[in-house]
Amino acid sequence: MPVDFETHEPGNPRVDLSEGTNARKLMESLLQSPGVGYTPAELAEETGVPRGSVGPTLNRLEAAGLVRHKEPYWAAAEDDRVAAATASFVGIKTAASTYSGDWYAENDGWDEELPDLNDEDQ
């Protein structure tokens, strides 16, 4: 992931958990059973993340405090940040499943049709 070179600090444990990233796939898998540890090979098979990417990604997640490691197993961390990530993932999936296929999802630019609430003529 590209970074702003001037502000980047090498010790920064920021991890991109955007939809479709390897970090997101691994976290979602680990959060399914937070108290269970998995080997990197098991996680690669479960998530479809290339085996060579699993280890480095887990190391970044560990540096960020999102996973824990007991050789050779990895599990989700027991931390408030993990609870927040879980709530975020569940909330996004719930919203997507609730509203997918509704009028808004089928009409591009729907927000352009909404009235401007700052317009004084209304």
Write a short abstract of this structure.
The protein is mainly alpha-helical.
Please, could you describe this protein's structure?
The chain is mainly alpha-helical and 122 residues long. Helices cover 43% and strands 7% of the residues. The chain has a two-stranded antiparallel sheet with strand order 1-2. The mean pLDDT is 77. Residues 102-122 are annotated as: Disordered. Residues 33-71 form the HTH marR-type domain. Pfam families: MarR_2. It comes from Halorubrum miltondacostae.
Record keyword descriptors for this entry.
globular, two-stranded antiparallel ribbon, 4 helices, 122 residues, 7% strand, mainly alpha, 2 strands
Q: Element order, helices and strands? A: HHHEEH
**How far from one another are the termini?**
45 Å
**Given the C-alpha coordinates, what overall shape results?**
globular
Major sheet characteristics: 2 strands, antiparallel
Secondary structure: helix percent: 40-55%
Secondary-structure-based class equals mainly alpha
Uncertain runs with pLDDT below 50, 5 residues or more?
A: none
Average of pLDDT: 77
Rg from C-alpha positions? 19 Å
Strands, total number: 2
Largest sheet strand order: 1-2
| Percent in strands | 5-15%
Task: State the helix count.
Answer: 4
Topology:
Layout (H helix, E strand, L loop, with lengths): L21 H11 L7 H8 L3 H13 L3 E4 L2 E4 L3 H20 L23
Antiparallel strand pairs: 1-2
